Amino acid sequence: MWVQRAGERYRGGDGAGIETRHAFSFSGYYDPENVRFGSLVACNEERLAPGAGFAEHRHRDVEIVTWVVEGELTHEDSTGGRTVVRPGDVQRLSAGGGVRHSERNEGREPLTFVQLWLTPAPGFTSADAGAEPGYEVVRGLADSAPYVLERADATLAVWRPAAGERIELPAAPWVYVHVVRGEIRLAEQTLTAGDAARITDGRGLSAHALSGAELLVWAMRAEPSYG
Length: 227
What we know:
Elements: E1 2-4, E2 10-12, E3 18-22, E4 40-48, E5 53-59, E6 63-70, E7 73-77, E8 82-85, E9 90-94, E10 99-104, E11 111-118, E12 134-138, E13 146-149, E14 154-159, E15 166-168, E16 174-181, E17 183-186, E18 189-192, E19 196-200, E20 206-209, E21 214-220
Antiparallel strand pairs: 1-19, 2-3, 3-4, 4-11, 5-10, 6-9, 6-11, 7-8, 7-10, 9-12, 13-14, 14-21, 15-20, 16-19, 16-21, 17-18, 17-20
């Protein structure tokens, strides 16, 4: 297990009113020892002031999953979707062979969200049949309910333990735990908001909530594939 602290993330940003923290090599920052974990290639914490946002841009061969922490995210994409995503919602954009989208804070309050990018599993790259763009929003994802990302052979669960509660982590080749809020104890280490643990071939691990917390827990099983 390797823990990355919130303060160890790379500081990014793209325009006025945008503050970004990257967990992996991203944009102008490159560390050859930190380019991916399993199929996960990005975990960005984004903070957008009211009126700020990312203009329309293009992606391909990536699965983009977004979790809003506070505020409202307005999403538009070339599949025709225009959605406002709120805390508790899971948004997925499958880029397939190519998709364009924009993300903005059109609300009156600051917006904070976590965005994770995963590479597609074999059979779902732009070189494969059926790799068309796709989009969905799951409203109000229930506590611990699995969200299966078929195109990346990965599963996300959002856990909201109360203080004193223990959570059994999944047994998978790669497990990624991101602390959204609160404080947990994991394998003798204390993690707080913004910290993340990367666990390889873990078995029998549990997270102990030291306070009320919210965790994003990924279980990944497929080797990365590139189109």
